[in-house]
């Protein structure tokens, strides 16, 4: 792009709307994107920094009056200067705090979109980072109302924001102070950390002081600060984009150079939840999804956005794979007639190429999506079975508390009650996938009571006790073995149907997804560890303890997710393409060709 274009504008009714021409630009970008968004109060020189990142003197509009120049969000896509095969997407946002706006929530929506779309967020302000500057950043404290992780209806839980939020840079313009803290020279980053330092105490005044600082420290995985001196004589500031470099402060140019180089070197490619790399095309889908959600009055949800992108991208991936297969076979038709083995050989070749094309384009490995649904299904089944057992065994539990079984003949009564539970449970859970596993746990829990009652029953001989102790488990063990055998046969059949090369590709893609998820979790954990250390150093024991609980929950969720994917993927990989076709009605007319394409 030789100049920026408007990406998100404000319609006449005040609602945000996406510009189709900008989406067309993004649709053509197949490369990964590094997205840098700048936010800040209007008339603070945000656009100048974005122009410098684009390697240009002019581009984004620089206003020279008290009127906010940039409206909505403007976009400029340029080749990344240091990362090969990567596009740098620059987003210049409408100035916050413009007096002409009538909607007080408009600024927060713009700020939220900048956070959602960027991999690096630059906050541009003027003067110093004092309490007033931080209080003006109330938008960061409202993000829990404008961004959700898993569901628009979820309770407020911002502990996971750090996994998905961009890195944070505070650019302080027209900075005139000495970088000195307690009589000692300080770096720009130390100045930022000093400004974000929390106060001890629990009064409302202290809580209000700490809230925006806590949000910045908690939400963003990394923080960086640059302090820019006055660029030139005040009379020339309005013409900054046209000034000769000799007329601009060398110190200002030096900081600008460091700022640009840091972003070029350190800003990461934009990733979505679970570490999926965002291309220009996917970014366009995200923009439309988020803006349409906000325009409808709903709250953008990261999980829903990922699912929407998966459906869009995977549908396109299936079509692309089919086109590759059909194109190859159509060319082969020109050589007909051929021997059967020649046609079969070419079919296998084009089928493999189609699969490779699909795998390259597919968004957020469908194996992971399918495995996720299977895990959710198993969890729902587990809960239903546990609830049912709890209900069915309530009477038995009450009898145990009252000691009704602790008498001669009590074991027979206990066994009869248990058999009744088994019959009712089996009749109501015959199709539940976790029925056997849940009941096995239940029996193990009841075995302690069973043995105690058995030993206390004076009527039974030792031989009878041993027989009865085993009998109650026998029927369930037989059913469990039958179920295990059935599942084993299903796995073997699935493995037989699969192709080794296709399995290798699926495994490779899944491993890459798992690697990205681990990296995502590690970045979030590193950020939380740094924050916890800082809290402990300053005496915030209670906040540090809460951070420990969040980290333990992170570890648990990551371990569960990895275990779930590993357990299920081995048996379901061959069903993935089949799952896509069944779940995409728009492709129903192409099912036969696609089955041939994928050799299913």
Automatic annotation (TrEMBL):
Residues 30-268 form the GB1/RHD3-type G domain. Pfam families: GBP, GBP_C. Keywords: Coiled coil, GTP-binding, Hydrolase, Immunity, Innate immunity, Nucleotide-binding. Signal peptide: none annotated. Residues 464-564 form a coiled coil. One of its GO terms (molecular function) is GTPase activity. Transmembrane segments: none annotated. GO terms for biological process: innate immune response. Belongs to the TRAFAC class dynamin-like GTPase superfamily. GB1/RHD3 GTPase family. This is Guanylate-binding protein 6-like. It comes from Sinocyclocheilus anshuiensis.
């Amino acid at each position: 792009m030789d100049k920026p274009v408007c990406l998100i504008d404000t319609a006449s009714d005040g609602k945000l709307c996406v510009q189709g021409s900008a989406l067309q630009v993004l649709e053509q970008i197949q490369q990964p994107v590094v997205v840098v968004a700048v936010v800040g109060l209007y008339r603070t020189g945000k656009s100048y920094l974005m122009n410098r990142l684009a390697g240009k003197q002019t581009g984004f509009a620089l206003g020279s009056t008290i009127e906010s120049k940039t409206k909505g969000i403007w976009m400029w896509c340029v080749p990344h200067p240091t990362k090969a095969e990567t596009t740098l997407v620059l987003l210049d946002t409408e100035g916050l705090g413009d007096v002409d706006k009538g909607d007080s929530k408009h600024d927060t929506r713009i700020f939220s979109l900048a956070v959602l779309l960027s991999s690096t967020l630059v906050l541009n302000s003027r003067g110093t980072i004092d309490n007033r500057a931080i209080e003006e950043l109330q938008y960061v404290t409202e993000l829990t109302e404008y961004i959700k992780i898993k569901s628009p209806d979820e309770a407020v839980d911002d502990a996971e924001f750090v996994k998905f939020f961009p890195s944070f840079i505070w650019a302080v313009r027209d900075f005139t102070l000495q970088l000195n803290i307690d009589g000692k020279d300080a770096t720009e980053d130390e100045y930022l950390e000093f400004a974000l330092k929390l106060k001890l105490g629990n009064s409302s005044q202290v809580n209000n002081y700490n809230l925006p600082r806590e949000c910045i420290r908690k939400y963003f995985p990394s923080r960086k600060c640059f302090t820019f001196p006055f660029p030139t004589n005040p009379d020339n500031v309005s013409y900054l984009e046209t000034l000769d470099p000799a007329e601009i402060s060398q110190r200002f140019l030096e900081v600008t150079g460091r700022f640009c180089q840091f972003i070029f070197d350190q800003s990461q490619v934009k990733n979505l939840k679970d570490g999926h790399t965002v291309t220009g095309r996917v970014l366009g889908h995200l923009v439309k999804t988020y803006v349409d959600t906000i325009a409808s009055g709903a709250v953008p949800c990261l999980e829903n956005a990922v699912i929407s992108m998966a459906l869009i991208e995977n549908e396109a991936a299936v079509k692309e794979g089919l086109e590759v297969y059909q194109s190859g076979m159509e060319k082969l038709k020109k050589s007909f007639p051929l021997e059967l083995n020649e046609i079969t050989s070419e079919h296998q070749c084009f089928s493999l190429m189609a699969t490779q094309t699909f795998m390259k384009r597919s968004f957020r490995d469908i194996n992971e999506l399918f495995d996720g649904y299977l895990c959710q299904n198993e969890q729902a089944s587990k809960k239903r079975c546990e609830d049912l057992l709890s209900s069915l065994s309530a009477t038995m539990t009450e009898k145990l508390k009252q000691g009704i079984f602790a008498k001669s003949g009590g074991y027979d009564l206990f066994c009869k009650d248990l058999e009744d539970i088994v019959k009712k449970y089996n009749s109501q859970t015959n199709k539940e996938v976790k029925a056997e596993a849940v009941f096995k746990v239940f029996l193990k829990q009841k075995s302690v009571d069973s043995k105690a009652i058995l030993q206390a029953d004076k009527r039974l001989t030792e031989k009878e006790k041993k027989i009865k102790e085993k009998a109650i488990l026998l029927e369930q063990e037989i059913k469990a073995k039958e179920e295990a055998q059935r599942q084993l046969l299903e796995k073997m059949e699935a493995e037989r149907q699969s192709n080794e090369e296709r399995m290798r590709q699926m495994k490779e893609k899944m491993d890459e997804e798992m690697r990205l998820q681990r990296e995502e979790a590690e970045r979030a954990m590193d950020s939380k560890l740094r924050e916890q250390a800082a809290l402990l150093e300053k005496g915030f024991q209670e906040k540090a303890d809460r951070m420990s609980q969040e980290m333990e929950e992170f570890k648990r969720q990551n371990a569960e997710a990895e275990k779930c994917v590993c357990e299920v993927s081995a048996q379901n990989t061959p069903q993935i393409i089949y799952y896509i076709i069944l779940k995409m009605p728009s492709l129903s007319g192409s099912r036969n060709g696609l089955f041939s394409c994928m050799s299913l």
